[in-house]
């Protein structure tokens, strides 16, 4: 099969099926071994494109083992008796280009602490990206506030900044834009709405270490930036999290909040527990793992970026495969996952799940992105609870349900396919295998449909 030429009209129709205006230049190198049996799809019994393994995750530096053993022997395992958590905070703040960092037990607890320290209260509303890990919703519910979804732009995989302002009500106090998969949100646009309506901005950067917006680190652009260091993350420690900011008094409040409400810095010493708090402290062992993982984070990020750029270029040549588009102002993604959209109409209407299985059979592991969680069980469970019925008038909850319609997000949920970050740590020839396998599936699409 030679180069495939399509008309501009057809390209727009295929890429957008209505809403999206991507112009696609599809012309790919065909996959062929010259033998019909060899070219047969692996899911149908043919040979796999790739037999080899992929880089595993997490990986550790043996030098970290001695530091951890030494710390264990001291018995000083919690942050109150050791220096490692504070050392990590200093180094992470430096890496992010901000004044302060507070280490927490997880990304979830970093978000909860930020909401509390910024004064987001029960009965408030918080505008949030719908296409995200469920923790971004859960923390708002845990705070007894109402998550209000602004629709997703399927091209960028991110909150559509033009959809935020219409969601603001007199109860709105904050916005949580999520830099999902490490893709930076257009923060100037989000901050402009926040300024106009006097809202706080908490960046959910739990997947976006070292991602950049206009050359600045994501997480440093709102009132607070929250990170996760859970095991699958590009900076892993089993569990762990952090809050970053340049606002000293806010960070003092976060510190107090995560340490049972004890006084810290500018939080007044009027009593033993001047504010309400809880225990969200990071442990010494987490900090030691993170300090060793920080030795590799920049190098790994550069490898992922180079491989992602290759995939961007090659995958966009295959009909029906549309890699993410960087949002306005985004200068670097962190690639916690590498996302693209699969347009089934270009694959003989083969369902996405079948495509994912076919790619897996060729030796390329991939998965679906997030589902339409804005309609998931937790929503009605919360809205029907006695607490929410007390906090919000029935008319507001009715209106909320009527407005919980997100066509951009629904569309993205049906089209998104992702590769994990560890796959992007492979070699150029590994990336070529990905391109070969998808090309092979495309060429054999007529035999693919089950
Ligand atoms: C976007 C997003 N927000 C929040 C979290 C919560 O972080 P953690 O799992 O460390 O609590 C995660 C973790 O996967 C995440 O991906």
Write the layout of secondary structure elements.
Elements: H1 8-16, H2 36-39, H3 62-74, H4 84-96, E1 100-104, H5 107-117, E2 125-128, H6 135-142, E3 146-149, E4 152-153, E5 158-159, E6 172-176, H7 187-197, E7 200-204, E8 212-213, E9 216-217, E10 224-228, E11 241-245, H8 248-258, H9 284-293, H10 297-315, E12 321-323, E13 330-332, E14 337-342, H11 352-361, E15 367-368, H12 377-383, H13 386-391, H14 394-403, H15 407-415, E16 416-420, H16 428-443, H17 445-448
Parallel strand pairs: 2-3, 2-6, 6-7, 7-10
Antiparallel strand pairs: 1-11, 4-5, 8-9, 8-13, 10-11, 12-14, 14-16, 15-16
CATH class of the largest domain: Alpha Beta
Low-pLDDT residue intervals, each spanning 5 or more residues? 1-23
The helix content, as a percent range, equals 25-40%
Strand content: 5-15%
E-strand count: 16
Task: For the largest sheet, list the strands in their spatial order.
Answer: 1-11-10-7-6-2-3
Mean pLDDT: 94
Please give the domain count.
2
CATH homologous superfamily heading of the largest domain: Type I PLP-dependent aspartate aminotransferase-like (Major domain)
Task: List the ligand species.
Answer: pyridoxal-5'-phosphate
> Total number of helical segments?
17
**What characteristic shape results from the CA principal axes?**
globular
- Output the CATH topology of the largest domain: Aspartate Aminotransferase, domain 2
CA distance, first residue to last residue: 23 Å
Per CATH, the architecture of the largest domain is 3-Layer(aba) Sandwich
């Amino acid at each position: 099969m030679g180069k495939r030429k399509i008309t501009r009209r057809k390209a727009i129709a295929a890429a957008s099926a209505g809403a999206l205006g991507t112009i696609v230049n599809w012309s790919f190198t065909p996959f062929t071994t010259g033998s019909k049996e060899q070219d047969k799809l692996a899911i149908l019994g043919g040979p796999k494109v790739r037999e080899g393994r992929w880089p595993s995750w997490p990986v550790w530096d043996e030098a970290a083992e001695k530091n951890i053993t030494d710390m264990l022997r001291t018995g000083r395992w919690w942050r109150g008796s050791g220096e490692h958590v504070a050392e990590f905070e200093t180094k992470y703040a430096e890496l992010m280009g901000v004044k302060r960092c507070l280490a927490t037990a997880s990304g979830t607890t970093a978000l909860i602490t930020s909401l509390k320290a910024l004064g987001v209260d029960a009965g408030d509303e918080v505008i949030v990206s719908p296409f995200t890990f469920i923790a971004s919703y859960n923390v708002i519910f845990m705070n007894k506030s109402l998550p209000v979804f602004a629709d997703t732009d399927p091209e960028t995989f991110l909150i559509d900044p033009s959809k935020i302002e219409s969601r603001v009500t007199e109860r709105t106090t904050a916005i949580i834009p999520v830099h999902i998969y490490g893709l930076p949100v257009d923060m100037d646009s989000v901050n402009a709405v926040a300024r106009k309506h006097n809202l706080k901005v908490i960046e959910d950067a739990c997947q976006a270490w070292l991602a950049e917006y206009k050359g600045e680190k994501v997480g440093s652009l709102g009132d607070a930036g929250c990170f996760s260091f859970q095991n699958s993350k590009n900076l892993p420690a089993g569990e762990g999290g952090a809050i970053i900011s340049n606002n000293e008094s806010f960070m003092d409040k976060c510190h107090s909040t995560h340490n049972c409400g004890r006084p810290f810095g500018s939080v007044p010493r009027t009593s033993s527990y001047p504010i309400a708090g809880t225990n969200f402290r990071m442990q010494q062992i987490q900090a030691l793992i993170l300090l060793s993982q920080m030795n590799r984070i920049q190098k790994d990020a550069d490898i992922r970026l180079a491989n992602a750029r290759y995939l961007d270029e090659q995958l966009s040549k295959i009909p029906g495969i549309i890699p993410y588009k960087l949002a306005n102002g985004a200068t670097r993604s962190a690639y916690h996952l590498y996302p693209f959209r699969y347009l089934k109409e270009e694959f003989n209407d083969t369902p996405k799940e079948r495509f994912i299985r076919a790619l897996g059979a060729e030796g390329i592991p991939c998965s679906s992105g997030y589902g339409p969680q804005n309609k998931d069980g937790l929503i009605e469970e919360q809205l029907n609870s006695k607490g929410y019925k007390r906090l919000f008038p029935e008319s507001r909850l009715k209106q909320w349900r009527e407005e919980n319609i997100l066509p951009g997000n629904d569309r993205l949920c049906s089209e998104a396919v992702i590769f994990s970050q560890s796959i992007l740590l492979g070699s150029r020839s590994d990336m070529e295998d990905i391109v070969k396998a998808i090309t092979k599936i495309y060429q054999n699409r007529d035999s693919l449909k089950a």
